[in-house]
Amino acid sequence: MAIKRTRKTASDKAEVKTQPSLLSGMELDILDDIVGYRLRRAQVVVYQDYVRTVGSLDIRPSQFAAMTIIGANPGLSQTTLAATMGIDRSGAVILIDALEGKGLASRVPSPVDRRTYAIMLTEAGQKTLAELKRLVAEHDLRITSQLSDAERTQLRDLLHRLYTPQF
To answer: Are 107 and 39 in contact (CB under 8 A)?
Structure first.
């Protein structure tokens, strides 16, 4: 069911149909009480804004996270990257392959363990990461603009507690 809204344009008044993100009056039953459902809805909004913000750079959120961790810890191993990101080692390999394919990261022989590779950002990767950090910081402020500074901090803390359980 679409809701009709009238929008004035420069040329004339046009009737525009828009689909709200959640129809008013729609019963969500148990979904309203499930944290995972609300997290997923929020994640969709965050992802869409991220893509609009950094889309021209063609870097996915997981690639940005990997680049940030590699940039802060040059020479780390694929295993350490995977553990830090909370993903399988095979997922880290896919991420690094993608970053290498874009010329943003490289694997070099580890100076401490001949069986592993150290991951480094290339010069292009360092420049791209600097631009990404600027854009993502703007994105983060925009998507949390309805929250106070204290609420932003509280949200980050609560989410951290969810992904670092104590059991």
So the answer is: no
